[in-house]
Amino acid sequence: MSTPTYAHGRYSGDGSHLFWLAFRTGLLTILTLGIYRFWAKTRVRRYIWSSVLLDDSRFEYTGTGLEKFLGFLMAVVFLAIYLGVVQIVLFYFGLTLFREPDSPEDIVAQVVAGYVTVLSVVPFLFFAIYRARRYRMARTRWRGIRFGMDKAAGGYALRAMGYWLLTILSLGLLLPLQTFRLEKYMVDRTWFGDARFHQGGRWTALYRRMLHIFIGLAILLAAVIGAALSADNTAFLVLPFVATPVGLVWLAVGFISFRVQSFAYLAQNTTLGGTVAFDARPSTPKVILTWIHGSLLVGLVISIIVAILGGAGAIVFGGVLSMAEGDPGGGTIAATVVLAVMGYVLVLVGGDAGALVAITQPILRHYVETTTLINLPALADIQQRAADPGADAEGFADALDVGGAF
């Protein structure tokens, strides 16, 4: 029997199991004042990674909550010292955030200090994005072989700032260049065992994936023109009222379409070791409809639960008031507040877990099941790679709240 050439992705995750896992770990995160979130994210990742199969082999996540927690502490200490130095430099030049402004000049100086402080953190945002991905790669295995990435977070941060600046100055026209070059920088430094990934293709090819963005912008431009013409002819007033919401919705759909289809193009032009290729066919309508359906479902369930809890609370509190002849004691009020807070926490944690199950997991399933690996036999020549150290794990990503939900 000949060896199969293709390996199709499959996702085996169960919604109820993931919900209760996310719900339990979410409650523990609240009860520990956020400390358990590093272990919570790790447990959710392990479940999701193990639910992804390629050639009937499951992926494995080997990261630990302790690694993430210690990395977070290291990043917080570093950022605190760094921002302290920034404030000292600003104070030297007469700029500070920590002084009540006494004049318009002081207000301007405070605004400038605020912008400088925010911009000084931007390099670490991009640094964190690369480090977070490198950590996930280093802690991911498939067929027992480790993934990995080169140490190049500094170079990525510099390039990301440059490409983002170009995109802003070009009013978004160079978004394909930014998307392609930054992804290529990371892909070309990613390994599976001793085989390196390579990102092929052309950045100009991504302009085709921006079609709906351009349509949305054209509709919004028509709205602006209609508003200008309505000064002389009120018949044009209907144009901005109709075109503005349509253009905004179309533009939002366009950005989603760009992300989905650019992922497909980049995946289709990625190779591993020069012999293994990939194919990805995600559907933009499927992703959008899944998001809409999941959001409506989660919103409906939360509304019903809030209504039930609110009604029950009103009945209980009303009964207590009548028993106390309209003058409840401090203990009764405190108990009511505690019950209200508990209800809010349960709804908050349940909503996050529901969104993970009803939105994130179905979209992930769609991406996985529309991805194919080509030339499976070539994987037999790939050898194991040495383990990468944890370093700061995802410390900067957690401290700056970037890098994805799981």
Q: Number of helical segments?
A: 11
C-alpha end-to-end distance: 40 Å
Low-confidence stretches: none
Structure summary, number of beta strands: 10
Query: How much is the radius of gyration in Å?
Result: 26 Å
What proportion of the residues form beta strands (DSSP E)? 5-15%
Strand order in the sheet with the most strands: 1-2-3-4-5-6-7-8-9-10
- SS-derived structural category: alpha+beta
Task: Summarize model confidence as the mean pLDDT.
Answer: 84
* Assembly of the depicted chains: single chain
- Helix residue percentage: 55-70%
What does this structure look like?
With 406 residues, the chain is an alpha+beta fold. The protein folds into three domains: 8-33 and 282-369, no CATH class; 62-200 and 380-406, no CATH class; 201-268. The protein has helices at 15-31, 37-51, 65-92, 104-138, 153-169, 175-187, 211-229, 238-268, 284-323, 330-369, 395-399; strands at 6-11, 52-54, 57-61, 140-142, 145-149, 190-192, 195-199, 270-272, 276-280, 371-374. Helix 1 (15-31) packs antiparallel against helix 2 (37-51), helix 8 (238-268) crosses helix 9 and helix 9 (284-323) runs antiparallel to helix 10 (330-369).
